[in-house]
Amino acid sequence: MHSIEITLKVNVVDGPKITENIPAQNVDAFDKFIFKIEPNEKKEVALIPKSQEQEQLVFLLIKSNPYTVEQAGNDQVISYSFKDNGGDKTIVLDKAHLYQGTGQASLLAGDLSTLTFENKLPGDSDEEKKQNTAEIQILVGRKAVKTV
Which of 2, 22, 45, 59 is deepest in the core (most CB within 10 A)? Predict the structure, then answer.
């Protein structure tokens, strides 16, 4: 068994500061993925082995360098999607995304076994391609497969 520990530190400039030691998340297995995704490219990442069920996903951290911000009329973003009830659910990767515990992971309400990442940043020139290639890091924690 492995333990994932998180310390959350929030500082408001010239304002309050809060530090929270979140109770450790125990997991039986974890995977870390690091990959690059160039502009105008898509990549699929299998988070959960086919032999396991989604309920076993209890920790998910997704981060990117760079991040993008979705603005009206601007679809040049880095995003990820998964199968939702009846279609695809797309989420813009504007900051680090953290889902801890089965409650938070259930907010995604879909099939999280595979995520599809897409980089819609411009990459026409070599300089744009170099500047807008994103490095994605994912940490996944799972409970053990239940046996009968």
Answer: 59
